[in-house]
Amino acid sequence: MKIEDLDKVLSFSHITLIPTNPVPGETFNRLRKFKARNELYEIIWWNNGCCLKHKELIIPFAYVRKANTWPNGAKENLQFYNFHNEICCILPTQSWQE
């Protein structure tokens, strides 16, 4: 997944991006912080894979996309896929009540 593709997925109305600075000594910023449904998440991007972090949880993934209501009934989800193109995480970003 390209970093530009990740930025496109994270840029919609129910996700709040939090500005971050590159790690000292690096000119490229691999870290994306965002809030969805009042919870803070981080994504560390690498060309050959990424990690979604939430509190103590870390989920390695290959790519993410916006998705529909399956399987949790949320109005919008982020679906994270592993290196076998299987869903490894579903993050609701908007419920029907919002």
Keywords:
98 residues; mainly beta; 5-stranded antiparallel sheet; 3-stranded antiparallel sheet; 8 strands
Layout of helices and strands, plus pairs?
Layout lengths: L2 H8 L4 E4 L12 E6 L2 E8 L2 E6 L2 E5 L1 E5 L8 E6 L5 E8 L4
Antiparallel strand pairs: 1-2, 2-3, 3-4, 4-5, 6-7, 7-8
Task: Characterise the protein shown here.
The protein has one helix spanning 3-10; strands spanning 15-18, 31-36, 39-46, 49-54, 57-61, 63-67, 76-81, 87-94. The termini are far apart. The protein is mainly beta. Helices cover 8% and strands 49% of the residues. The protein has 1 helix and 8 strands. The strands form 2 sheets. A 5-stranded antiparallel sheet has the order 1-2-3-4-5, covered by helices on one side. It has one domain (3-94). It is globular.
